[in-house]
Structure to design on (132 residues):
């Protein structure tokens, strides 16, 4: 199995609701790591082009940069936890990239670090044809 990892960072604020109590709005420098994985390389010996992944990751994160996540879709309706931010970015990247990456690779996971030593990872389910 091959993996490539592409990282991006954006600054954003959020306020979580935890057990019914809303915490104060506060900011983070959100570090995003997207993992593209696959069992085979293309005819050029690549799993995927880094620049393509970088561009898609930048575009996916751009609406959140210097924003309050609670005011941006989908987090205006969903608690903007690191876990749900990771899932949203992973699913959005997959919508943008998986057809272009197929059949060699796919968006495997996204990790979000919102503070040093605090990381949430969302791993996308394997497609039905890849399951045993």
């Amino acid at each position: 199995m091959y993996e490539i990892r592409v990282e991006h960072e954006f600054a954003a604020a959020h306020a979580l609701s935890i057990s019914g109590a809303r915490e104060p709005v506060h900011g983070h420098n959100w570090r995003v790591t997207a993992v593209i994985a696959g069992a085979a390389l293309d005819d050029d010996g690549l799993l995927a082009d880094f620049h393509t992944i970088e561009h898609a990751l930048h575009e996916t994160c751009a609406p959140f940069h210097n924003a309050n996540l609670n005011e941006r879709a989908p987090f205006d309706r969903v608690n903007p936890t690191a876990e749900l931010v990771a899932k949203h970015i992973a699913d959005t990247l997959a919508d943008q990239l998986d057809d272009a990456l197929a059949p060699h690779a796919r968006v495997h996971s996204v990790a979000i670090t919102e503070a040093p030593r605090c990381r949430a990872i969302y791993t996308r389910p394997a497609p039905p044809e890849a399951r045993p």
Q: What stands out?
A: The domain at 2-46+80-130 is CATH 3.30.479.10 (Tetrahydropterin Synthase; Chain A). The radius of gyration is 16 Å.
